[in-house]
Amino acid sequence: MQRLLPINLVFPPAYAIFAFMIWKPFILNSNTARSEDIHQLYQSLTVAIGDAIKHRPFRDVCMRDTRGFYDIVAADTTDAEFAAMLELNGLDMHLKSMAFVPLRARLFLNAIIDCKMPNSAFTQDDGNMVSGHSESKALRAETSKLLDKLVCALDTLQPAKFHWQWVELRLLLNEQALIDKIENHDMSIVDAIRSSSPSSERATPSESEKVFIEIILTRLLVRPDAAPLFSEVVHLFGRSLEDSMLMQAKWFLGGLDVLLGRKTVRQRLSNIAENKNLSTKSQFWKPWGWSYSGVDPVTNGGEKRKSEVTSLEEGEVIEEGMESKGCVKGSTQVDIEGSGISQQHVTEKAFIELVIPCIDQSSADSHNTFASDLIKQFNTIEQQINSVTRGVSKQTGTASSGIEGPTNKINNRKGIRGGSPGLAKRTPAPVESAPPPSPAALRASMSLRLQFIVRLLPIICADGEPSARSMRNMLASVILRLLGSRVVHEDVDLSSNLAQLKRDMELMPVVASTEMSGDSLFDRLLLVLHGLLSSCKPSWLKSKDAKDFSGFDREAVEGLQV
């Protein structure tokens, strides 16, 4: 019977009592709270809140409707009112901040999950507040831990615990925003608290939310299986974060290294994680209610064989891309390379599964901008293909430069022995230019972007711009030119051309999206072109649930020909 009570009836009283408990040092140190009655009241409240957080029906009510739980917490004004009271008492800013960091809501959530009251971070055994210097030090320590807590929370997302894990992530972001406003902005503690809980329909994301988007992208390296959960987190956080994710994906795909296939999605995400000092080491634990069918057996087999061959000592770690110093047989090396390609494919698939729902749920301006930028990216790839095709004959004429290389090296050595550094400077070694992207890399780049183009086709076909500038006509024009290019038209069979595969792997370890999908890139581009040039609206343009999306939907694209 108790479990049937609404959360807005049972939660507010317990949350108010919890506030009295964690703010006890500030209340008892005031001049108006020295009587024995206050201490007796706190003893009674301690027993009451202790029983409440251990009471199973109460915990079930709170955990059953976590969206309502967060809405009540975000709308509660008690924190701001208590902060205003502390400001009237003239307390130091760092002293006041200790009452709200960690956030009361996050402490309460942890108390419900752990079935016990949290240890107070700002009290001593006698109940008195610690010194201001220690409080400032504790605030800085809490700030440094927030990033690690966000990363850990994302790495441990599980479907069975997701109903409260997303609330924990949201409260961690709110706490990070509060600390940022206190330390880096000229803002009162009251205003900082009122602005730290964002509206779900806010126009622009905060700086902490932008950093959070980058963290989510890097977590695809560690938890590619959790991409749908990451996407659901972004959706629950509101429209502004969905738009931010889409713009971040636009920036990510628009980078020249990823656009021209010089780097895979996995490599670029690894660069971002390295710049942010974020760990990409996989964490292993027994999952809660998670059965991921997308785990690639090639990856698992390759990793197993790699560990068997290299004979790792206990605790030793081999990072991705590091060659084994031991004796590795040729067949094992092929397995490891195949495992690397499979890992890249899994990461790319996770990236698609993360971004696709954001396309469906973002604002009209965001997905229109994303669609327009993807068309520009296709145009850039088409221009690159033309430049590579025109440069084939020029590359054969530069073969003579390889003959002059040894001569230059001899002259350099003579100049150094002759004691005249000027001679060596007048004959510098030729600077090697970056090799052009391989055809396989360009095909993989187009195949990746085609996943998003297919999802955006209803928007592209509905573009109301004049015919010369409409996204529909621009995309059709680019695809028509691509269909006539040799890079797209030729059907490369990598399984029968190992030499070409090895050369392409040396230039850029491609994600073989085109080859793995079972359909040639030419066929898929042709299907999209048919849909763009069709005079009637294909039936497949009806929106699909994001959960039903998995990679490239051939049936949906074939419907374009109707």
Description:
This protein is mainly alpha-helical. It has a domain of 190 residues. The chain is elongated, with a radius of gyration of 30 Å.
Gross geometry: elongated
Q: Main β-sheet: number of strands, strand sense, barrel status?
A: none
Query: Topology as H/E string?
Result: HHHHHHHHHHHHHHHHHHHHHHHHHHHHH
Distance between the termini: 56 Å
What is the tally of beta strands?
Answer: 0
Strand content: under 5%
Kindly state the percentage of residues in helix. Answer: 55-70%
Global structural class: mainly alpha
Q: Which spans of ≥5 residues are poorly predicted at pLDDT below 50?
A: 121-133, 288-329, 396-432, 491-496, 501-518, 549-553
Mean pLDDT: 74
Total DSSP helices: 29
Radius of gyration based on Cα positions:
30 Å
